[in-house]
Amino acid sequence: MKTVQYIPRATEKAYTAQTQNTYIFFVPMKASKQEIAKQIAEAFKVTVLDVRTMVRKGKPTRFSRGKHAYPGTTFRQDKKVAYITLKAGDKIPVFEEESTTKDEKPTETKVDKKAEKAAAKEEKKVAKAEKKAVKENK
């Protein structure tokens, strides 16, 4: 069995499923439930209790072969999704790291920008006051 990268789904449904210790991944089409369980257990050092899989059919998309050609329809690639239930207490850290970094960065940058704007305004006021003082002394 070769190692394959399993891609975690970052959606609202995936985040709410974490409360029941269920994680959602995109997996290769040929992967079996046993292979998926073994790979996830080895990669994240967790105990897998249950694996449920489903294949999502690709959506139809229209295409055209030129201005006067008759348009056609093709389908996007099918995707296999695995719902993986872990033992109570086990967690996969991939999801938690993303949520904490996203929450911290915007608040820091907003505070920094406000402080920079306030400092720039103060500098302009001081410069205007100095110019006025120089003009009055002449």
| SSE sequence, one letter per element | EHEHEEEEH
CATH architecture of the largest domain: 2-Layer Sandwich
By CATH, the topology of the largest domain is Alpha-Beta Plaits
In one word, what is the shape?
elongated
CATH homologous superfamily heading of the largest domain:
RRM (RNA recognition motif) domain
Strand percentage: 15-25%
CATH class of the largest domain: Alpha Beta
Low-confidence stretches: none
Measured as a percent range, the helix fraction is 40-55%
Averaged pLDDT, please? 84
Number of helices: 3
Radius of gyration based on Cα positions: 28 Å
Counting structural domains, the number is 2
Give the biggest beta sheet: 4 strands, antiparallel
Strand order of the largest sheet: 1-2-6-3
Structural class: alpha+beta
Q: Distance between the terminal alpha carbons, to the nearest Å?
A: 87 Å
* Strand segment count: 6
Task: Describe the protein in words.
The structure is a single chain. The chain is of the alpha+beta class and 138 residues long. It folds into two domains: 7-91, RRM (RNA recognition motif) domain (Alpha-Beta Plaits); 92-138. 46% of the residues lie in helices and 24% in strands. It has three helices and six strands, in the order βαβαββββα. The chain has helices at 12-17, 33-44, 93-137; strands at residues 7-8, 22-27, 48-56, 60-63, 72-75, 79-86. It has a four-stranded antiparallel sheet. Strand 4 (60-63) and strand 5 form a beta hairpin. The longest helix is centred in the C-terminal third of the chain and has 45 residues, at 93-137. The protein is elongated and about 90 Å long.
